């Protein structure tokens, strides 16, 4: 670089620093009016603490002042890193990404930082996998994974705002299932290189990616502890999440589009005071493990006015352990409001890993269109904890591929998972769903607990559904179903199997139902039918599998 260019760059930096020194001291926290937050968090059925918003100084550091070039080709990793470093040295502020296509490697956050993407700005992450170093951070513990394109750990006051786009170059990482693509798309992908599975149904971007899972499983059998070098051989398999904040306080995502992640799009882990609003999350529907947003063991969370279109679960809550203490950390005090989810494995999801517990959750005014499942609650005997005080209200669904509502306690419940001496049996209880409408689904719902841990205190009050199949309950107790209108095109509107203390009240019987209600199995007890006119049905109640009429009480 010539001396003239160096001098010019130094002058630009000096100008930027002078601008910073003269900048006012207002903060991003002041730009979030309290009433905007309270309109979502007031009148909740549980106590919701006041969320602390990021306090970030009103200083700007424009990445072009540090040598960044927005042509989609120039590597801006150093320029963005330098801008963040200068911002941090000054006590924090905004790192501004103007209009343009900004190619970069991983971005590591610091405290008191707001990454601002102006309208027309696109951050395009590198598709060179070796640009992403292997890192060892909580909660993985002793395991390694490729660093996320955007990451931060143990930080305070961080934000990503603006109207731009963040693209994770996920196509360089993700495997592809043949069944999810047209013949032409599959032909083009195979011709591009990569590796096919033995059965020809899965494409991987490299041999390292295709063999990574089997390699690590075998190595873990042979060695008590794996080194970083051991993981290096499987790095292409160790796909990162696009945005990962771990143990951070006061986090704000407001405005941008987050898309095309190598794996999950957004993943706050053990974070406190998290606000996510006005953002778009996009992964193509065929993206393997392409979750929209997963909050793991977070507390005091507001997600509002967002749109999600994902390749796996849409909006998901999980909980687990904090490494190295191994303490169980719940996911609690969560509000999800006014969000829309399109293609996803689940619109709103809890699980499957919930052994830290999940409690005090409100989901309201949300719409799910074309998701595999609408409201999805999943766990297994090896992943369970207590899930309670969940309140779901005013949900609209359309064209749901499978179940509109689904409780599944056998999710991937396989012997392949390591046995544990701890009690990880899931307990799902005190879950209240009201004012739900679903137009078009394979099933109105499946509520299935475990024989040793039945679903308990589940209430659905006000549910209208048109579907192929009706609503099924199995291994459940203390269930209340009120003001339901379930209209399946075939089979019974309701099927109860091994249910005890179940109330079905003021529910509409669709004309021609055959039967309206099916009771299966000899373990049904105290099933109460209150204020139900079954005259329109061809058959009112059918008893199968040794079920007896004394299990039902009509009032």
Write structural notes for this entry.
It is a single chain. With 555 residues, this protein is mainly beta. The chain is built from 6 helices and 42 strands. A hairpin with a 4-residue loop joins strand 25 (313-322) and strand 26 (327-329). The radius of gyration is 26 Å and the shape is globular.
Task: List its traits.
single chain, about 550 residues, mainly beta, Pectate Lyase C-like, 3 domains, 37-stranded mixed sheet, three-stranded antiparallel sheet, 6 helices, 42 strands
The assigned CATH architecture of the largest domain is 3 Solenoid
Quaternary state of this entry equals single chain
Count of alpha and pi helical runs: 6
The mean pLDDT is: 91
Radius of gyration: 26 Å
Structural class: mainly beta
β-sheet strand percentage? 35-45%
How would a textbook summarize the main sheet? 37 strands, mixed
Uncertain segments: 11-25, 415-421
Give the topology.
Blueprint (H helix, E strand, L loop, with lengths): L2 H20 L11 H8 L18 E3 L8 E5 L1 H13 L3 E5 L2 E5 L2 E2 L4 E5 L3 E5 L8 E2 L9 E2 L3 E4 L2 E7 L2 E3 L8 E2 L5 H9 L3 E2 L5 E3 L2 H16 L5 H5 L10 E4 L2 E6 L2 E3 L6 E4 L2 E6 L2 E3 L10 E4 L2 E6 L2 E3 L3 E10 L4 E3 L1 E7 L2 E2 L4 E9 L3 E12 L3 E6 L7 E18 L1 E4 L18 E22 L6 E13 L1 E9 L2 E9 L5 E12 L11 E4 L4 E6 L10 E4 L7 E3 L1
Quick summary:
This protein is mainly beta.
């Amino acid at each position: 670089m010539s001396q003239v260019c160096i001098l010019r760059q130094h002058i630009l930096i000096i100008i930027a620093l002078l601008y910073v020194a003269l900048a006012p001291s207002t903060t991003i926290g002041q730009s979030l009016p309290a009433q905007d937050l309270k309109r979502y968090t007031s009148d909740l059925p549980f106590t919701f603490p006041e969320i602390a918003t990021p306090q970030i100084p009103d200083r700007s550091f424009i990445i072009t002042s540090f040598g960044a070039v927005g042509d989609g080709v120039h590597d801006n990793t150093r320029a963005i890193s330098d801008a963040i470093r200068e911002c941090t040295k000054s006590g924090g502020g905004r790192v501004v990404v103007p209009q343009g296509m900004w190619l970069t490697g991983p971005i590591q956050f610091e405290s008191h930082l707001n990454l601002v993407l102006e309208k027309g700005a696109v951050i395009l992450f590198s598709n060179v996998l070796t640009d992403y170093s292997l890192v060892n951070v909580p909660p993985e513990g002793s395991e390694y994974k490729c660093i996320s394109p955007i990451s931060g750990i143990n930080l305070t006051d961080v934000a990503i705002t603006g109207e731009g786009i963040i693209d994770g170059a996920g196509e360089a990482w993700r495997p592809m299932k043949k069944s999810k693509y047209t013949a032409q798309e599959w032909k083009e992908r195979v011709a591009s290189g990569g590796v096919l599975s033995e059965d020809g149904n899965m494409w991987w971007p490299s041999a390292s990616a295709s063999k990574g899972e089997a390699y690590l499983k075998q190595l873990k059998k042979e060695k008590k502890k794996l080194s970083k070098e051991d993981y290096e051989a499987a790095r292409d398999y160790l796909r990162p999440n696009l945005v990962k904040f771990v143990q951070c306080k006061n986090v704000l995502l407001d405005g941008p589009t987050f898309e095309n992640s190598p794996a999950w799009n957004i993943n706050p882990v053990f974070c406190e005071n998290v606000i996510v609003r006005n953002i778009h999350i996009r992964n193509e529907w065929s993206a393997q493990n392409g979750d929209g947003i997963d909050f793991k063991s977070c507390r005091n969370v507001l997600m509002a006015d967002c749109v999600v279109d994902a390749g796996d679960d849409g909006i998901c809550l999980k909980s687990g352990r904090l490494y190295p203490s191994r303490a169980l950390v719940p996911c609690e005090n969560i509000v999800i409001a006014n969000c829309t989810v399109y293609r996803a494995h689940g619109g709103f999801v809890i699980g499957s890993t919930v052994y830290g517990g999940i409690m005090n959750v409100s989901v309201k005014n949300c719409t799910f269109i074309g998701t595999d499942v609408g409201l999805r609650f999943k766990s297994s005997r090896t992943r369970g904890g207590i899930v309670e005080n969940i309140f779901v209200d005013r949900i609209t669904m359309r064209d749901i591929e499978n179940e509109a509502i689904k409780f599944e306690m056998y999710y991937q419940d396989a012997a392949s998972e390591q046995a544990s001496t701890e009690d990880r049996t899931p307990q799902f209880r005190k879950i209240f769903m009201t004012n739900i409408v679903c137009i078009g689904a394979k099933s109105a719902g499946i509520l299935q607990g475990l024989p040793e841990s039945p679903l308990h205190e589940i209430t659905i009050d006000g549910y209208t559904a048109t579907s192929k199949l009706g609503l099924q309950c199995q291994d459940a107790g203390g269930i209340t179903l009120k003001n339901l209108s379930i209209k399946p095109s075939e089979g019974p509107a309701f099927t109860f199997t091994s249910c005890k203390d179940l109330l079905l009240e003021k529910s509409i019987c669709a004309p021609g139902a055959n039967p309206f209600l099916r009771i299966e199995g000899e373990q049904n007890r105290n099933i109460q039918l209150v204020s139900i006119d079954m005259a329109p049905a061809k058959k009112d109640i059918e008893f199968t599998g040794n079920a007896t009429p004394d299990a039902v009480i009509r009032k």
